[in-house]
Predict the structure.
Amino acid sequence: MIGVLDELRRRHPDLNPNIRRTLERRINAWRALNGPEQDVIFRQEHEPGRLGLSDFTDTSALGIAGKTLATFDFESVPMLSKAQAMALAAGDVWLKTGANLLLFGPPGGGKTHLGTAIGLALVENGWRVLFARTTDLVQRLQVARRELALESAIAKLDRYDLLILDDITYVSKDQAETSVLFELIAARYERRSLLITANQPFGEWGRIFPDQAMTLAAIDRLVHHATILEMNVESYRRRVALDRRRGPGRSPVHATPNELDKAVIDAASAS
């Protein structure tokens, strides 16, 4: 059998390192499942050098298209530096060890945008990423449990280096079989990474899992190897809405001291 990677290096010595790393990872994963002596089957589902959106899921259907690091407003989230976000987007340090990334903050603070942007950047860097609304994924896992296929469904998610679970706190324990979420977290512990966004602190997570013991066990597994970012900032959507209501011109809170002094003098002169 011709060595696929050797042949690629021979024909394309200038091949983008990220593309080569993606191919190496997929070929090694395929051989691990099918044996080293088997011919490697690889299907490229997007143009070489382009974003592997088939790996990331359909961004347009999820409403996350355009949410990149380039469009993220870092000035509005002063507790996060662009350098830190770029380091997370490389993935080498945390994805290789199965570590997690947890994003906390009120609605509208940019958690979904940041999580999506990091996921897209990771795909560009050769990692396999799946984005899912947590409620949607829980429902799919519930169906798998009813069909006695939960273990297989969770195992299939191992093909992704990272699962992005958006809005985890919208899952409630009155949904049947929410323990499937705990089983997913437990199965990926120290093996595969999770990126989770949440608008409620850990103290409120008792509403997600069936009982307190499971809640504590889930949190323990998530935080053991995790980077936690608390994005406690004003809602971007609320800020935009207020700016629209104010109309053109500068908001009074942005006036300079000289402008304020002049306004006081003018007012005194008029009286």
